[in-house]
Amino acid sequence: MKNFRGYNQVGELCRGGRVAPVFWRCEAVLGQLVFDPSGDLFTCFEAAGQDKAKIGRYFPEVEIDAARLQQWTSLNSFESPSCSACRFRFTCASGCPWHIVGQGVTECLPIEEELDLAWNHFAPVLMRRLADQPSNPRAP
Ligand code: SF4
Predict the structure, then answer these.
(1) How far apart are CA 108 and CA 96, in angstroms?
(2) The pTM is what?
(3) Is there an atom of ligand 1 within 6 Å of 90 CB?
(4) Contact between residue 57 and residue 51 where contact means Cβ atoms under 8 Å apart
(5) Over the stretch 3-30, which tens digit does the pLDDT of each residue have?
(6) Sign of the CA dihedral 58, 60, 66, 69?
(7) What is the pLDDT of residues 43-99, one digit of tens each?
(8) Residue 137: pLDDT over 90
(9) What is the CB neighbour count within 10 angstroms for residue 21?
């Protein structure tokens, strides 16, 4: 669980920290370039070598297909069409970009279950922290 974003966000909140919203799922939508041995360019390691995922070439000339690149870079918490109304989008930040680009499907993670587990796990931490706080001097 320690590598899951929702779990870590809740843990940080319960410890009194601040949590930044998540806008991107992975490096594939952030301009990462993957070079394959045949001269093609991709943004995703998983999808390297698959024609649907190709965004250009680096040999013999560098050519990037702007429309194909845009398919990837637009998959974020603000622009992904299937996620724009989802209340978990600033934790989940859209489904796997390769599944969306390659197969046209958004696979939702079990993010709600993850958050529920995290709140249950960190509830004692939160309660201890609240109990240790000095009382509010402005309270009546
Ligand atoms: S849970 Fe599903 S709809 Fe919501 S942000 Fe994640 S992938 Fe998108």
Answers:
(1) 9
(2) 0.79
(3) no
(4) no
(5) 788 999 999 999 999 999 999 999 999 9
(6) negative
(7) 999 999 999 999 999 999 999 999 999 999 999 999 998 888 899 999 998 889 999
(8) no
(9) 10
Please identify, by atom number, the ligand 1 atom nearest to the C-alpha of residue 112: 1
Q: Which pairing describes strands 63-64 and 34-35: parallel, antiparallel, or unpaired?
A: unpaired
Give the C-alpha separation, 58 to 41, whole Å: 6
Contacts of residue 70, defined as CB under 8 A and 6 or more positions apart, other chains included, come to none
Distance 107 CA to ligand 1 centre (A): 7
Identify the residue whose tokens are 């190709």.
54
Q: Please give the structure tokens belonging to residue 3.
A: 């590598």
Distance CA 25, CA 115 (A): 17
